[in-house]
Design goal:
Largest sheet: none
Strand content: under 5%
Low-confidence stretches: 1-5
Distance between the termini: 52 Å
Shape: rod-shaped
Length: 144
Amino acid sequence: TVQVLRCSVPRTRRNPGEWLRGAQLYELALDHIHEALTLADQAYAQFFLEGEEKEETNIDDEAGDSFPQQQQQQAMEQEQQLTAYQQDAQIVSVAIQSLTEGRDGLLTKARQHAGKLRRRLEPQWDSRDEVRDKMGVDRWNNNP
């Protein structure tokens, strides 16, 4: 989704009429990032629960026969998993930062466009209000 977003946003910036589509893509990307964060949290919690269980098992093993080589291998596997989780967290962080920057740019463009439209329409609104005041509200509302 982030890749689709990256392909679509430059086109959206060139064509202001596609702001709605750009906003929808940002929302979709944000939903996917939240899903990824939820999965990462679950995996991270499971990782630490397994680590605590292994520590308890190792304490029990130290009372009897000890397997230092097996413990070293488990420690290396845990370290590799932790490194993988850290890399995943960094990727999600970069995606969130990119999404935020893109959203801010899109909001700036939308505000600029809204201001431009407002400047064009205000004279028309003012003249409409003057005519309504001259005609009276009753005649204005009941104008056939």
